Amino acid sequence: MDTFTDNEFRRRFRLSKNTVQYLYTLIGDGLEPLVTRTGFTLSGLDKILITLRYYASASYNLVTADFYGVSETSVRNIIPVVSDKIAALRERFIRMPTDDLEIDETKRAFFRVAGMPTIIGAIDGTLVKIQEVGGAYNKTMFFCRKQFYAINTQIVCDANAKVLDIVARWPGSIHDETIFLNSLLFERFLNGEFNRQNRQSILLGDGGYSSETFLATPLRETNQQNRTPAEVMYQRAHIATRNVVERFNGQWKKRFPCLWIGMRFRKLETTLDVIVATAVLHNICKITNDIIIPPLSRDEEARYNEAVYEETQIRNAQHPARRAPHTISNLVLKQYFERIAGDN
Q1: Is 131 in contact with 263 (CB distance < 8 Å)?
Q2: Same domain, yes or no, for 76 and 117?
Q3: Calpha distance 62→74 (Å, rounded)
Q4: Is 1 part of a structural domain of the chain?
Q5: How far does CA 246 lie from the centroid of its chain?
Q6: What is d(CA 330, CA 338) in angstroms, rounded to the nearest whole number?
């Protein structure tokens, strides 16, 4: 680590030296030293750096191996182990607010964004590109409309773009709403786990979701010119508030380019571990105030923008007008925004 300046280190490993040291205190004891065929001993910290270098580049194992001066086989064995160790920290670093104080503070933070009440999280699905799917999996299920393989990953964020919940196991062809309806988080909301003293907690989602009793979606795009002042206020507040999860996607994928360049692992489980591990690292960066995301090169920036554009096109095509009534959306509109509009 001493070989590089702080800026050089961050550009190569996407984290600051202090954050890497903190990560080492969390998982270092579980990473046994490895003696390579050439007699070189890799410490637990070396293993972490090799894994982070992959997250930062998504390069072939041989490229990562040459960067660190070890064999390709060593890299192939190290990345799954370290990724599993980091992903195992998810219960500590990725969790929904549960007690009254946490829930109330989460709602207040969202309200400060654009005046949207009772919001406890912003939900979205994002496509994580993979090179291909091996084994007995049905490859066509992972194939997106833009002709690449992907994992559709469900993310819930708070107002500070911190991950509250993640589901990383569904093929890229599966719709966001299907993932949500089959998630543990859906069951928790259905059971009223986040409601307190008759005060409801709700999620914000885009037009790809039906409006449940606990998930508010945008108003339909029809009759925009005939909207009431309250409807205009609701729509603007919804868009501005839900933008936090879009901001997370940008921060997450720019910090860890492996998420949009495309991962290539023999086992799908390793890919899923990497997705969760990078989300854990994102939250750790929030805790350590490691908020400076190293810039991409000009070529990387162009490729990233192209990847974002392709995903946006896919998502827009997968968001037909919902037939279900906007139950909670209408409730928030009538009980809050109509009153506010009337006061004005």
Answers
A1: yes
A2: no
A3: 10
A4: no
A5: 9
A6: 10
pLDDT tens-digit map of 21-42: 999 999 999 998 877 666 678 8
| DSSP SS3 for 14 | coil
Total domains in the chain come to 2
CA angle 72, 74, 76 (to 5 degrees): 70
C-alpha pair distances (Å), 32 with each of 27, 51, 90, 269, 295: 10, 15, 21, 22, 33
How do residues 178-203 score in pLDDT, each as one tens digit?
999 999 999 999 999 998 777 789 99
For residue 337, is pLDDT > 50?
yes
pLDDT tens profile 160-180: 999 999 999 999 999 999 999
- At position 225, the amino acid (one-letter code) is Q
Task: Give the per-residue pLDDT at 310.
Answer: 65
Same domain, 203 and 289: yes
Cα–Cα distance measured from residue 175 to residue 326, given in angstroms and rounded to the nearest whole number? 19
Given the DSSP bridges, would you call strands 202-204 and 149-157 parallel, antiparallel or unpaired? Answer: unpaired
